[in-house]
Here is the input.
Amino acid sequence: MALPGLGFLFKIIGFIIASFLLIHFLAFLGVFAAIAYPLWWLVAPQQTFCFGCLIFNHCPFCGEESNRVRRSPKSLAAAIFNGFFILLISLLCLGVVFLESRLLFRMGFPPTPKTVSFVIPAKGQYRRGELFTVPIQVAGVGKPINVVQADIGFDPKMVEAVEISTKGSFANIFLQKEIDNKIGYLRLTGGLSNPGFAGESGTFGLVFFRGISPGLVRIEFLPSSMVLANDGRGTNVLKDLASSSYLILPEKISDQEREGQEVILTPEVLGEKTAGSEETSLVFYEERRVLGTSVGDKVEKDGRENFGTQLLSLWERMVAGILNFWYRFFQGVKGLFTIS
Here is the structure.
């Protein structure tokens, strides 16, 4: 016994699928079908049906009462009008496909590839009380980026973060600069306006650490770090996190050496300058250290796509194929009429 309404539901689903396929077929080949229609009528008029007769009670192409009967166009003029009708519908379908591409783009299709990695210097060794620097660098910037959030973790029993410098940074707007030596965490957040940073690699900031206890200390970028692409969607394109270990030697630096290092930390030396600019960066963070240490977010890993994602990806490839075809087609036509 069939369930009530089940047949109707299948009809609706079938209608949606058929309409979807027809729209994309016409967007792809409808223009050529419109051109071929009058020619096909000349070759096989009895096998060519008139759309006006099928849709309207009075056919606007043949100029006669049709009562929606399937029949051939009355004349060549009627066949040409049918071709224009197909052309109009095809252009509307192409517009629908373009709107689909914008919708899919907002949904994250095609996805911006994850290519950016944080880079950290190789292993080093320093004495107790000695100041050493760890640059915050990004590499593999395939497409422009405009926001970076660098979260770094360390053992607060072995090293302390003294200062974060933005001098020489490719960014010129900074929103957060936070240090917490109780839990061993620091964050620098900033970026730049359109068109963003497009270099293959660059320095975002510089962290000054001081060794306080002898031993091996690990300094690493945390999974809550982000690098956002300037793609209109703010896609996190961070692929890899970096870490490195440093050896803090038992030997302590002298008071004279310590005083010499303290000069480096003065505002006049650190500065807040942007790369290649004499103007001061825009700084919006407060000097007090108020830290939101929510570090649970993970760097997205490539994995198996679910069925819905696969369907959307297939849809995006079909839409992109249609639009790219017409782009290349019009570029070719334009090239034929371009005088060298």
